[in-house]
Amino acid sequence: MRRRIRRIAVCAMAGMFISACAGGDATTERPVQLTATVIQSNLDLSRGTIRVQVTNQTEAPVRVDDLTLAAPPFPERTSQDRAVILPGRRINFRVPYGEPTCSGQTPTTGPASARLMADGHAADISVDDSSDVLRRLLGLSCGRQRLADVVDIALGGTWTPVAGGQALMGSIELQRVGAGPVVTLEKVAGSVAYTLQPVDDAEPIATLEPEQAAASVPVRAVALRCDPHARAEGKKNYVFPLWFSLDGGAQIHVEVRGDVGVQSAMDTLCES
What is the pTM of this model? Predict the structure, then answer.
């Protein structure tokens, strides 16, 4: 009876505990208290991942496996990482976040939680997002979805050498695929090796009106770095950030990748 009372008390303690309180040998049970927060670096963003940082608040090592992040309206995803977390230490578990369900003009995130195996027992913990990582990511993802529903964005297929081969004249092509808002190109930028510059100094750079089916935006490509370290970035050198807005709303950051023809043309900038 004394063991039974002890068992109930342990299972009622605040914090996160192993779900084995429902069964098993009470003499081997102990509370396993973990805390978690979500973080994301620029590298994570480029990989389509976030990290759940789990901290062991107990005085004994805890093995964590099969961590699944539930962060609506993002789909549930499971990390491939597993680790033994020492007392007082924290470990990051990388999780792919997938495309969220975007409903309404201002979609919102729900409470985040993580299901995991702690020392072989199933457990649930809440995940802190006080840094608004998920909210910002939701805004970015849903903004990109709205933009993709309205316009197709690509680098043009023709890039002509100018200035003695020191630059290329090309274009960003906008093709309307859905009726609706004004599409405005607000800003363009470059990669480690190459940069894109608007030919005109107009602000905004370009606008696709609701009645327009397409627009071709002249841009200039210039080499920034041709050293081996920069060239080692490979295909990342041909990915260019662009910022758009819809009907003058918040800016939406997207990336456009040059195809093989664009890549070959830009490589000539480092050969001249």
Answer: 0.74
Partners of residue 90 on adjacent β-strands: 55
Strands (E), the chain: 34-39, 49-56, 62-70, 77-78, 83-85, 90-96, 112-118, 121-128, 151-155, 160-162, 167-176, 183-188, 194-198, 206-208, 214-223, 239-246, 252-257
Q: Given pLDDT bands bounded at 50, 70 and 90, which one contains residue 195?
A: very high
Report the candidate in 40, 34, 41 with the shortest Cα–Cα distance to residue 18: 34
Domains of the chain with CATH codes: 2-131 (2.60.40.10), 145-270 (2.60.40)
Closest CA to 264 of 173, 188, 191, 158: 158
Q: Are 166 and 222 in contact (CB under 8 A)?
A: yes
The burial of 242, by beta-carbon neighbours within 10 Å (0-12 exposed, 13-18 middle, 19 or more buried), is given as buried
Give the Cα separation of 265 and 71 in Å (integer): 43
Cα→Cα distances 80→94, 128, 159, Å: 7, 21, 42
Contact by Cβ (8 Å): 123, 117: yes
